[in-house]
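Entry for the shared binder. Reason: the reviewer on the internal report wants the predicted structure included alongside the sequence.
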Amino acid sequence: MKQTLSILTLALASSLALAHGEAKHEPAAVTVKEQQAWGIAGDPKRASRSIEIRMTDAMRFTPDAIRVKRGETVRFVLKNDGGMLHEMVIGTHAVLAEHAALMRKFPDMEHDEPWIAHVAPGATGEIVWHFNRAGTFDFACLIPGHFEAGMKGRITVRP
């Protein structure tokens, strides 16, 4: 009986630790490199170039079309010229559309994935990404209403 009670207590404590509700995510101390369809987190020391992207309250990225070579590691320097929070999320169109729908349901959701950067008004953020797969990928601001207003862009990765 004592052993069963201990196991149940441990199971309950574990489930409570995983259910954090509105808790904020702290940025990961170490970037976890997990292969995605659109590439993998890049090593900042290996970035071959920087691309500045400006975000505005007109719900636009400038530039909104980027070309890179497969195998290139790019540092995106994100400048929020607007008066509201914006973000850049890299992914496939399907993944971004699905995530945008989820953000509409849970607008306070926070992330710490290496392909996402939130940038406060007037601030600068950064994503370092290694494009190890050729193809056409997208980036967008998934803050509710921004994606729907056209805050999107395209990344073409040439072989």
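Summary line for the report: The mean pLDDT is 84.
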